[in-house]
Prior knowledge:
By secondary structure, the chain is mainly alpha-helical. It is built from 14 helices and 4 strands. Helix 2 (38-55) crosses helix 4, helix 7 (166-180) packs antiparallel against helix 8 and helix 12 (266-274) packs across helix 14 (295-308).
Amino acid sequence: MGVYKPPFTITNEILSYVSSISEKIGRISATSNLESKPHLRRNNRIKSIHSSLKIEANSLSLGQVRDVINGKTVLGEQKEIQEVKNAYAAYEKISEINPYNIRDLKKFHGIMTKYVVEESGDFRRGEEGVFNGDQCIFMAPPSRFVPQLMDELFDWMKEAQNSVHPLILSSVFHYEFVFIHPFSDGNGRMARLWHTAILSKWKPIFEFIPIESQIEKFQEEYYDAIAKCHLDGASTIFIEFMLSQIDKILDDISIQISEDNGQLSEYIKKLLDVMEYDIPYTSNSLMEKLGLKSKEGFRRNYLRPAVDMNLIRMTIPDKPNSRNQRYVKI
């Protein structure tokens, strides 16, 4: 009997994204050694962990996640704090993962769900559905089929790794994994961790690219793509969605690196220096911190360029001139 082949079609859009992403990764690797920038790597890892947990309804802010990882005391639900510690332990070992080994998958599920899930490191024994909030997107296959479905998926991956591009293979795995839903809890977190692990085997730089934060920004579209693929019986739409998000986040990474290489204006650097993460500021409070009087000069030299470069975001992006507008450092 041949190896199971997950159904998907390689469209022109997918090929175009693969080409664009490969080009951007080449450019980033050539202009900067991200591995030698520990603060950027750490910031991106914290963003990955915060976003992946936030998708699963963990309420801790980026600042609180940063504090937990830095060993500071954080007031919060014990389970949520433990989830951060677990995710950090898993992401710190990402380079040790063999993404084509099912034993590694179970081992890392054990790390990711330590103390918070009963069936930690084991496939589920009950029935599960995939939910977006309270809405059930679909019911997962019965638990008795899980071991066989996972074996088939990993057998396909091992065979396909030499013929299917890692960008496509990792997206197919992500969708199929979410569809099988092999664990009682932690499936979304594991799918995103494994996606990153597959890509970082192809290009190590992916270990420090927070794809999870991009998914979190487009969470509705993420679940929508999964639901559409379920109806289609193929993962094509999900592959296109994931590649479009990876393509977008590489633009952010390029800006981040150019900022780090000193290519940002002194104005933007000063603005970022006076802002703390997770705190919404009014434009007046920022002007006060910077000691500025001219509103137009502040907007032209500081605010607009920082928003355009995706270094700060507006709390009400649909109404840029709203009197309730606030600005948050990303």
